[in-house]
Amino acid sequence: MQHIQSHGPLRVSSKRLSYILQGLPLFLLLAWVTKAFTPNLSPKAGLLARDLELNLQIVSSSAALWQQLLLPCFTAGCLLWIIRSRRHVNSYISILIPMMTFGAFIFLTLLWSDHPDDTARRALRQMLLFTSVAGVVVISRSNDRFVNYLQYFSVTLLIYEALFLLIPHISFDVYGNFTGLHSTKNEFGGIAGAFLLIAVCIYRYYTETAKEKKLAIFCMIGWAVLLLLSGSKTPMGFVALLVPLLLLSVHLLRLVTIGVIVVWLFILVFIPVFLMGVGEAPIDFYRSILPEEALTGRTGIWYHLLSDIKKDVMWGTGYGAYWGVGDVPEALDIKWSYYRFLNTGHSGFVDLVLEIGLIPTVFWMLGLWVFVASTRNSADPLSTALIAFALLHNCLETSFGHGLHFVWVLMLLSMMNILYTHAHKPDFKRRFAAALSSGGQASGSQPSGGQSAGSNRFARSG
Length: 462
Description:
Elements: H1 14-33, H2 48-54, H3 65-82, H4 86-108, H5 116-140, H6 143-163, H7 168-171, H8 185-205, H9 210-230, H10 233-248, H11 250-277, H12 282-289, H13 298-309, H14 334-340, H15 348-356, H16 358-374, H17 381-396, H18 406-423, H19 428-437
């Protein structure tokens, strides 16, 4: 196709304009989930009572109408662009179906949900999120451009977040931790950690010119400084673990992903079954190795939630039917209120068991294992690194299936980007079937070191 020079007031070539328009949906989606459109401009409170009062917003009252309409309108806009081409429609369906099966199940929990209205609303939001992310990936067209768009957004958001250093009464909490345009340091820390990992990955595997290397170094230094200022230890630890592995080999990142899945299968299934078989209580065993003060108090939260998990351990309370539902009680009992207004259990795996039950959670992890194994020869370094980060982050923070959480959206983008790369290979169906029949051993050799599978060089903008 021959691109012509525009003679309009913008003086921009149709090729460059097409490049900008294809990246616009990804920019808008990431800006939305990072709250760039709705920054938290309220001063950080120092009193517990004030914090509890501010957290009353988590109850089942709905968001503003314009916020509820954003995701459906965004999905519709992506679909209008995609349906122009039959090839794009086929690609869209091929990467959407795997996630829609998970979405169909969380909708099914409506049948036994403790709060069916909240389950229906939150499950619908997840379905719309899946369709939106799939649309963004298809519109981006290629992994090279996908990486380019992520890099440009990283630079934009880094500058935007850094500007909040100029207004410290908004961007720092009472403990001196930098929160940026977000309400808490943990929320900002997850975003900063992810973009720091993205910058390192791009520098290691995708940069070709000196300009691209300088841009990646700028992002690495900027996000590292902001992450340190946030004081968020969880993403700091995960980034410190993943960066050396990323620099050595993408294969090591895949092992981290599988390792997290295996560890949680042992925690949730194998160890409890063994202990009950020998007549011991699993909770007593876990308390003996992890006291309630461990992991900055997270284990205390998990032990508190265990009584509710026991009520229906197999199928849960229903998706989105535990946190932020029901009437707001009197906030007089401080300890009780502390648990009541948490928002999450600070572990996505614990929250999955709590809301959708043990059996669906195990199937979700096994399905993720199959995905990682069967796509091993086509997963680019960036997507592999983000999936590994998301799995680690979900151990001590809740992101999987949690609203429009940034880490959850990044994981969806990474998984669908890998599926999109698969769908455009001529022997995809044969290789995928062979991978499943052989226990995840796909044909072909796995590149290591500085080269990734397929064409994944960092493309320069037109």
